[in-house]
Design brief:
It holds the Pfam family DUF218. This protein is of the alpha/beta class. It is built from 6 helices and 5 strands, in the order αβαβαβαβαβα. The protein is globular, with a radius of gyration of 18 Å.
Length: 199
């Protein structure tokens, strides 16, 4: 009985660890500052709205202030069509945090992750950007990376998920309705992407 219980605990721990690692790739995770390879500076930081948009924006602002890139691209349509777009709110948050207006570019039309990738690609092409750091929530990082990689043929994409936000943290597996729901939902959407059925 004890062996079965220990085996079950080990299996559950492996599932949680595996899901966390898979859903939240972090190319900057080992960086102690700028350097070579994944730790070099980028041309732009791309941040997509959704989930905890403020936490995502704050992480992009932090990277900008640390000098990781000279430009922030904010992407997202309005959740409430009667108000400003998410991108506009992100833009204003960055301005209020001291980021210069000329260092921010907006995509206000994207309503899905695929649209984020498609619309940001237009900005990237027009500015001849070759290297971006992609910022989103931990649970959303893998799918965002897949969607952007499918669009950005000759552009290097480095993933950098928000470490913790109001919807996701390293303790996500303790919240059935929050963490597990988000994790399973993302796995389903990744499966749809693999089948060419994502929107």
């Amino acid at each position: 009985m004890i062996h079965k219980l220990v085996g079950l605990i080990i299996f559950a721990a492996l599932v949680v660890f595996g899901l966390s690692a898979y859903l939240s790739p972090n190319d900057l995770g080992k960086c102690q500052g700028w350097g070579e390879g994944d730790c070099r500076k980028a041309d732009a930081i791309v941040v997509v709205s959704g989930g905890d948009t403020n936490a995502r924006t704050d992480e992009a602002i932090k990277l900008y202030k640390e000098g990781w890139a000279p430009l922030i691209v904010v992407s997202g349509a309005a959740a409430d069509k009667t108000g400003p777009s998410n991108a506009k709110a992100m833009y204003q948050r960055a301005i209020n945090s001291g980021v210069p207006e000329k260092a921010i570019v907006m995509d206000e039309s994207s309503e899905t992750t695929r649209q984020n990738a498609t619309e940001v690609k237009k900005i990237v092409d027009s500015r001849k950007i070759e290297d971006v750091i992609l910022v989103t929530s931990g649970y959303h990082m893998r799918r965002a990376q897949l969607e952007f990689s499918a669009q950005f043929n000759d552009v290097k994409i480095r993933s950098h998920p928000v470490a913790s936000d109001k919807n996701w943290s390293s303790w996500w597996w303790l919240t059935r309705r929050g963490g597990w729901w988000l994790a399973m939902g993302e796995l389903m959407r990744i499966g749809l992407f693999a089948l060419g059925l994502s929107r």
